[in-house]
UniProtKB/TrEMBL annotation:
Record domain UspA: where: 9-138, 149-282
Higher taxonomy: Bacteria, Bacillati, Actinomycetota, Actinomycetes, Actinomycetales
InterPro entries reported in the protein's UniProt record: Rossmann-like_a/b/a_fold (IPR014729), Universal_stress_UspA (IPR006015), UspA (IPR006016)
Short name of any one Pfam family annotated for the protein: Usp
Entries under Gene3D superfamilies matching the protein: HUPs
Protein name (record): UspA domain-containing protein
Homology family: Belongs to the universal stress protein A family.
Organism of this sequence: Peptidiphaga gingivicola
Length: 303
């Protein structure tokens, strides 16, 4: 089923520093998209008076979190709407992902809220079932990766990675950022290892295919795109790249959750070790999750 995605960036907050850090990033993403920023906080309805189940936020607590979030975004210059949901955070995110362009959460919230749930037992459900791209913002201060000046996208030639590449191209166009497209060849994990005379030939073939894929994805966009083919474990290489760039973009198969990440078998390592925001792009994501980028203001400030 096709869903029409509104130009809305949803950020889940739970009162933790991590969620407010993600909110700062989400606000800037909304600004670059000319999008509405939606601040969503979940609370737990007691099953009987005085009972709070697994110690989720009360409705009053959630209202206070929303109020604090509004204070933090008051001077960003974007339209803001709020949602107070008596629901599980993951369920709320999944429901909103059918109608919005991005869902954003902070990593390692430490409160049992969005961040812990995203990187915990429900990670598979969110990544496999989301209808739009999900963004995980690590504990690195958002100001250190804003504005976005350098984006890295993992590409392995599959259709799903091409969808992620298309999103990365559009993000690079909005931010006027450099885009580095990376293909990793993990020969040590392959049953077949090329002989000395063919090793460079394999790298050259992959590089040629990557350049062709990137050229097609970037057609019609004025961006600074570069291609890199590197030997090594894909997840480890992307995590290493995250220390020097402002955003990672990776695709998922849309089945098996993060275990189905196209760029390696240790997908959780990317989220746990990345020190810059990571956009997880599910298979069902398409261009309808992006509003036309031509009307986006291109103003940037120095870091």
């Amino acid at each position: 089923m096709a869903y029409q995605h509104d130009n809305v960036v949803v950020c889940g907050v739970d009162g933790s520093d991590a969620s407010f850090n993600a909110l700062k990033w989400a606000a800037q993403e909304a600004k670059m998209r000319n999008a509405v920023l939606e601040i969503l906080c979940c609370h737990q309805e007691p099953t009987y008076p005085g009972h709070r189940g697994n110690a989720g936020l009360t409705k009053d607590d959630a209202r206070k979190v929303i109020d604090k979030a509004l204070e933090k975004t008051a001077d960003v210059g974007v339209d803001v709407q709020t949602s107070l949901e008596a629901d599980d955070p993951t369920s709320a995110l999944l429901a909103r992902s059918k109608k919005v362009a991005r869902v954003v959460v902070g990593a390692r919230g430490g409160s049992g809220g969005f961040a812990d749930r995203l990187l915990g037992s429900v990670a598979s459900a969110l990544s496999a079932r989301a209808f739009c791209a999900a963004v995980v913002v690590p504990s690195t201060a958002a100001r250190d990766v804003l504005p976005v000046e350098h984006i890295v996208c993992g590409v392995d030639g599959s259709e799903t990675s091409k969808i992620a590449l298309g999103l990365a191209v559009r993000e690079a166009a909005r931010w006027k950022a450099k885009l580095s497209c990376v293909s990793a060849i993990n020969l040590s994990g392959s049953m077949w290892v090329p002989g000395p005379g063919y090793h460079q030939e394999v790298l050259d073939d992959v590089r040629a295919g990557l350049k062709d894929t990137v050229m097609k994805a970037a057609e019609g966009y004025d961006i600074d795109a570069h291609c890199h083919v590197i030997e090594g474990n894909p997840a480890a290489l992307l995590a290493e790249f995250s220390t020097a760039v402002d955003m990672l973009v990776v695709g998922t198969r849309g089945r098996g959750g993060f275990a189905g990440l196209l760029l390696g078998s240790t997908s959780q390592a990317i989220l746990h070790h990345s020190v810059c925001p990571t956009i997880i792009v599910p298979r069902r994501t398409s261009e309808n999750e992006d509003a036309p980028w031509g009307n986006v203001p291109w103003s940037r400030t120095a870091k």
